């Protein structure tokens, strides 16, 4: 949601990214009007991190040899470029930008406090999924157990009272990749997939909002992948809902893909197997190279004429 309070212009290489940080909370947003009045138990403090943990990481958006160039997706505070010039709500959004999108939205949260002692929760604006790229696809592959160690060092030495108040139990961060990408057991030899961010005892107390949580760790909470639909206000959302309700919809499309390549049976793989079986006689299409996460599995989309 655009707000023109202050502008921080960052120039990296040949690209320029404009990120607008509101200096105080906004009450012009209709989503917020109701909640402004009562912040009881909802105060959040944002930990101030050196840019090496967030904004600096965006500078290498075209620099990962085995990963796609995600520079175009940084536009519009991580929403990506508009699908066309007249669009108000539709953007080419890359889910990997969730950390940036969330950070930007948090700065508009109506119950922010500058005092960590007054906060009910403490947000750590670390772009973990983007930082993970250098371990997953870059030169630091062999140091994947080290992701997060510098951050922990910072969190516990810079204003240690924030951490020490609840030993990190009130801290939370957002991961724009599945938890599996951060849970390689420490000491794996040979190294397999992932960093060990979620395996480090240092982060045991920290809550992680992730696009795909594992079933058992209480620290992980699943949040939806960002979509490409970002209406700037409620009336545009409502008018879209009306339009969809009114329109004649004759085709149902579903997509199942990615992941589930291990030895044990999984729901994803069962769906894919069933689709594979049906490819011949029904309107099921095998779509390859759609995965953003390098699983290399591709997926199936199914069109049903109603
Ligand atoms: C960006 O990439 C360059 C070259 O690969 C590397 O030296 C630098 O440390 C990277 N910067 C960040 C913030 O990852
Ligand atoms: C969209 O707007 C930009 C800037 O005004 C212009 O350069 C570009 O040609 C437009 N694109 C289309 C598809 O109209
Ligand atoms: C990681 O270590 C292995 C084995 O020592 C080596 O073959 C490989 O080149 C290293 N990878 C990177 C990215 O340094
Ligand atoms: C996590 O919390 C426990 C108490 O619940 C505490 O003993 C431990 O030191 C904390 N871990 C860190 C890394 O602060
Ligand atoms: C919603 O956003 C659109 C596009 O920016 C704007 O034209 C419209 O006036 C806005 N409506 C309200 C009620 O703010
Ligand atoms: C695929 O089709 C074969 C033959 O009809 C059947 O035996 C098998 O169970 C099917 N597999 C799945 C996953 O539906
Ligand atoms: C598949 O698509 C074609 C053309 O859209 C349609 O005529 C046919 O009925 C569809 N078949 C099924 C099983 O949905």
UniProtKB/TrEMBL annotation:
<keyword id="KW-0735">Signal-anchor</keyword>
<feature type="signal peptide">
    <location>
        <begin position="1"/>
        <end position="27"/>
    </location>
</feature>
<keyword id="KW-0808">Transferase</keyword>
<protein>
    <submittedName>
        <fullName>Putative xyloglucan galactosyltransferase GT19</fullName>
    </submittedName>
</protein>
<keyword id="KW-0328">Glycosyltransferase</keyword>
<dbReference type="Pfam" id="PF03016">
    <property type="entry name" value="Exostosin_GT47"/>
</dbReference>
<keyword id="KW-0732">Signal</keyword>
<dbReference type="GO" id="GO:0000139">
    <property type="term" value="C:Golgi membrane"/>
</dbReference>
<dbReference type="GO" id="GO:0016757">
    <property type="term" value="F:glycosyltransferase activity"/>
</dbReference>
<dbReference type="InterPro" id="IPR004263">
    <property type="entry name" value="Exostosin"/>
</dbReference>
<keyword id="KW-0812">Transmembrane</keyword>
<keyword id="KW-0333">Golgi apparatus</keyword>
<dbReference type="InterPro" id="IPR040911">
    <property type="entry name" value="Exostosin_GT47"/>
</dbReference>
<feature type="domain" description="Exostosin GT47">
    <location>
        <begin position="40"/>
        <end position="279"/>
    </location>
</feature>
<comment type="similarity">
    <text>Belongs to the glycosyltransferase 47 family.</text>
</comment>
